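Issue 218. Parser rejects a valid record. Input:
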Amino acid sequence: MSDSTSRTKGNEAPAIAAIRAANASLLGKDRDPAKPFKRDSYAAETSRGYSTAMGRGFELAITLVIMVAIGLGADRLFGTSPVFVIIFSVLGFAGITVKLFLGYDLEMKKHEEGAIWNRKPGEAS
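Output the parser choked on:
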């Protein structure tokens, strides 16, 4: 039960041909030579995105660790059980959530500032 058709270029399933065409366009093999693909800027943008995400995750984790440590110190100082740990944990989480939300909102406003759907009628592109 083997397929007797050869796998030469042009004699393949349409899905495989579409996948190969998409890969070729992503790799820049059939791109317009007048508009070369800028790999350096793409790599820099990708790295910047990863750096931002890692920084935000680190900030979230460190904030919670510091707030729990402050709560543990306050509990030890006042002789209470996990009251201050819970209070400071909730306050730390709420604070970092608000900070991340406001930062995201500001970033999105800046991103959409010149978007076509935000332009007034008759405004040039």
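Fixed in the parser; the record now loads. The helical segments are 14-27, 39-78, 83-112.
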